Amino acid sequence: MQEMLRKRLIDALDGCRLRTCSDAELDEQPRLDACADENEFASRVVEVGMHLALRRRLEERRSEIEAALKRLDTGCYGDCEECGEEIGLARLMANPTASLCVHCQADNERGLLRRCA
Ligand SMILES: [Zn+2]
After folding, report:
1. How much distance in Å is there from the Cα of 40 to the middle of ligand 1?
2. Are residues 50 and 98 in the same domain?
3. Phi then psi dihedrals of residue 56, to 5 deg
4. Which domain holds residue 30?
């Protein structure tokens, strides 16, 4: 069962890598100093912001996946990082990078947990 989840995590990691590769060309793409007019400038600002947000999202996703793979290696995969209870197979199938059980995740989203990054 864990092997299947591991495979899903590795596939997901590959997906992030591929998209990040194609992101490399974005680095040189939008140049704010070479805009013809205000409109072009405005649309490039939006473009740059979206690229940054997307890249950040991918990087976060990748570190979540890497952390999950590390937990698989160390044998603590599937245990809630907060309370130590089992996260549960259904939740892991839906979200293989989950590190919190449903209850702790709900607390976390309400800002009740103070977790160190
Ligand atoms: Zn928990």
Report:
1. 49
2. no
3. -60, -45
4. 1-76
